[in-house]
Specification:
- The structure holds two protein chains of two kinds.
- By secondary structure, chain A is of the alpha/beta class.
- Chain A has helices at residues 18-30, 75-82, 93-105, 120-130, 174-185, 206-215, 232-243, 277-286, 298-307; strands at 10-14, 33-38, 46-52, 64-72, 86-89, 110-113, 136-138, 144-147, 151-154, 163-170, 190-195, 221-227, 248-253, 290-291.
- Chain A has nine helices and 14 strands.
- In chain A, the strands form two sheets. In chain A, strands 3-4-2-1-5-6-7 form a seven-stranded mixed β-sheet, with helices on both faces.
- By secondary structure, chain B is of the alpha+beta class.
- Chain B is elongated, with a radius of gyration of 26 Å.
- The chains are: A alpha/beta, B alpha+beta.
């Protein structure tokens, strides 16, 4: 079991440019069912992929793969032809919000937007649009979602992940890899790892992911990796106190970040005295979350939370 | 991206938002020349000389060179002495202010050099209010936030008297609705002409925020004049960097002299760099990991000299540029490179580090921690380079080593 994506998930790629192609190739090598692409200027063509199988992904496949991905004009046409339920967006920032809304309008269940640098105002509009649909958005500005050995959607390195019992939720990319790597080294595999992204306006938040993992029978514990800016972690902690039945470990990046400065991620900023690491850490502790004192202790914190 | 007050007022004025009349000056002569037309057009013998820097608290701020002089000074000499007296006073003030260093609550003790002044008409103020338009992350919408406590730091009001803050959400596609603008005006206690002007002001301000992709507009104080006009006496605007591509007119307002030179250079290479006060330079891939690296340096007793995210798609050239920016800082006593290779391969980083060190030399200790994609290849490149580089097992080990080496 897992959340959001599994071995049966059929995935569309929105934006088959250089980046889209690169990561589609890695996903196919991992064993993800990439079934079609949407790229208006290249509709009617196919994109050919071949190479050596990534054996850290879906098990029991031959050592090489070859796939021709058809390219469609619209998401609706791509769904009709392929039966896909999920898309991943690599469309450049000025057009990415439109791609998200097109995916939602076409009725996809899940849209994972990797694109970094989407104007906030575009995401404000996209969120309003999504509110009237049944589509879930993950991201933008996120590494994606992976269910180890089943389905990898996004830009994360597949081989650091192992199947197991821990749900991972994170606002960061490389810091997630760091956490996953530590979990794996501590003998803790993952059910699903979800990157929710580092933008101030995003789709799925910590609370949504916690609820998914709480309901997933195979997930036995969750690690949430937050950072300065906003109050999403504090809201998650309120939810944990009221609803969470599984142990939670956590880490917050940015204890040393100065106020008023954007720390790389558009959403990582302490403004008006709000969004400090200290506030988030004390909210976590008050909710019974085991907080890793340093980023090297994330795996150990998860073990400790499971032992409680 | 931030702009100056006078530029914010230009943008507001162009959108019909009421602002006082004023002129920007970069020289004493320009400041003096601004006085007569200003007094003639406004009919008010009072003018205000305002330092233009990208930091708040200018009114209460003081100049290092002139400890008695405020960053914003009202010139009342014209009330008795006429235009000539005003001109003389403005000359004296401009002469002191231009080129001097203004220290405010937001500049830090080092202050900021004043290179531009804004000479503005005096306003007969009846009431001082507060208004801002900012993103509310919880609702994923912009909100208009007002308070009757004008002239006070809004954080203070929020902490002490939160009931004095009123908020209305701007609905995407609809803008600020008329009933919301009225609710704001009622909440601010506006009546008669001021009520009508206030409602109009709020509509125009909300529209400007959406049209200009602002990150924040803050007007503190927003004033009601004795004539019932509602006017932006101050204006702070910052813009959302992801949306700047559709606002070339705003980009043209950027004042590079207000930016940190190293941060400016880094942005040219598409590197995310922020200068800090410590002595340990950091080079990391990924924003979250870069923050966590700063944190762990502090945790083991060191102080980070910078935040630096080389990004996911870094090339050897980018790494070299990053390395140069870090080593140029004289306060850097050691460097910690912390990489978790995903898309970014460890060997790419290793090559970049080796190239940079060979190019610019290395006079401080360097600790490198590599993990992830092509880690063995990366370590091999570092080991075979013959450079004096210390390898670290993990982040904690690396942080401890660099702190020990710089002590």
């Amino acid at each position: 079991m897992s959340v959001l994506v599994s071995k049966d998930t059929k995935v569309l790629i929105q934006g088959m440019g250089k980046t889209g192609r690169f990561h589609t190739d890695k996903a196919i090598a991992y064993g993800t069912q990439m079934v079609g692409a949407v790229h208006p200027s290249r509709a009617g063509q196919t994109e050919a992929f071949s190479g050596e199988t990534d054996h850290s992904g879906v098990q029991g496949r031959p050592d090489t793969y070859a796939a021709d991905i058809p390219i469609f004009r619209t998401v609706t046409e791509a769904i009709d032809a392929t039966g896909a339920t999920v898309s991943v967006v690599y469309v450049p920032p000025p057009f990415a919000a439109d791609a998200i809304m097109e995916a939602a309008d076409a009725g996809l269940e899940l849209v994972i937007c990797v694109t970094e640098g989407i104007p906030v105002a575009d995401m404000v509009n996209a969120k309003q649009f999504l509110a009237g649909t049944n589509t879930r958005l993950v991201g933008p500005n996120c590494p994606g979602v992976i269910t180890p050995q089943e389905c990898k959607i996004g830009i994360m390195p597949g081989y650091i992940h192992t199947p197991g019992k821990i749900g991972v939720i994170s606002r960061s990319g490389t810091l997630t890899y760091e956490a996953v790597f530590q979990l794996t080294n501590n003998g803790l595999g993952q059910t699903t790892a979800i990157g929710i992204g580092g933008d101030p306006v995003n789709g799925t938040n910590f609370v949504d992911c916690l609820a998914l993992f709480n309901d997933d029978p195979d997930t036995e514990g969750v690690i949430m990796i937050g950072e300065i800016g906003g109050t999403a972690e504090e809201e998650a902690c309120e939810w944990i106190k009221a609803n969470m039945t599984k142990p939670v470990a956590g880490f917050i990046a940015g204890t040393t970040a100065p106020p008023g400065k954007r720390m790389g991620h558009a959403g990582a900023i302490i403004s008006g005295g709000k969004g400090t690491a200290a506030d988030k850490i004390s909210a976590m502790e008050a909710a019974g979350v085991v907080v890793a004192p340093t980023p090297t202790d994330m795996g150990a914190a998860m073990l400790q939370a499971l032992d409680r | 991206m931030k702009i100056h007050e006078y530029q914010a007022k230009e943008l507001m004025k162009a959108r019909g938002i009421a602002v006082p009349v004023g002129t920007m000056a970069t020289t004493v002569e320009e400041a003096v020349a601004a006085v007569r037309p200003l007094i003639e057009s406004s009919g008010n013998p009072v003018v205000v000389v305002k330092s233009q820097i990208h930091a708040g608290g200018r009114g209460k701020g003081r100049f290092k060179e002139h400890p008695d002089l405020g960053g914003v000074t009202v010139v009342l000499d014209g009330l008795k002495g006429g235009v000539e007296a005003t001109e003389a006073k403005v000359r004296e003030l401009a002469d002191k202010m231009l080129g001097a260093t203004l220290v405010t609550i937001q500049t830090g003790p080092e202050g900021k050099q004043v290179n531009r002044l804004y000479v503005e008409q005096g306003i007969d103020i009846a009431t001082e209010l507060y208004v801002s338009v900012v993103l509310d992350r919880s609702s994923s919408r912009n909100i208009v936030m007002v308070s009757t406590e004008g002239g006070t730091e809004i954080e203070e009001v929020a902490a002490n008297t939160p009931e004095k803050i009123l908020k209305e959400e701007i609905t995407p596609g609809f803008g600020l609705l008329p009933f919301q603008a009225r609710a704001i005006a009622y909440g601010l206690g506006l009546e008669g002409a001021a009520f009508k002007n206030g409602v109009k002001f709020m509509h125009l301000l909300a529209d400007a925020a959406v049209e200009l992709d602002t990150d924040m507009i803050e007007i503190n104080p927003l004033v009601v004049t004795t004539d019932g006009d509602v006017m932006a006496l101050d204006g702070k605007m910052s813009f959302e960097s992801n949306a700047l591509f559709r606002h070339p007119d705003v980009v043209a307002m950027r004042d590079d002299s207000e930016e940190d030179p190293a941060e400016l250079e880094a942005s040219g290479y598409d590197l995310s760099f922020i200068k800090l006060d410590g002595s340990i330079g950091c080079m990391v891939n990924g924003a979250g990991l870069a923050m966590a690296t700063m944190d762990i340096i502090k945790y083991v007793g060191g102080e980070p000299a910078n935040f630096l995210d080389v990004g996911g798609g870094a090339t050897a050239e980018k790494v070299t540029a990053a390395f140069k920016i870090i080593t140029r800082d004289p306060s850097v006593k050691g460097i910690f490179v912390n990489i978790f290779g995903g898309i970014m391969k460890c060997d790419t980083i290793a090559e970049g580090v080796v190239t940079a060190v060979k190019e610019v030399g290395l006079e401080v200790p360097l600790v490198v921690r590599l993990e992830g994609t092509n880690v063995e290849l990366g370590k091999q490149i570092i080991n075979e380079s013959g450079l004096n580089v210390v390898s670290a097992e993990d982040m904690l080990d690396g942080a401890k080593k660099i702190v020990e080496l710089t002590e």
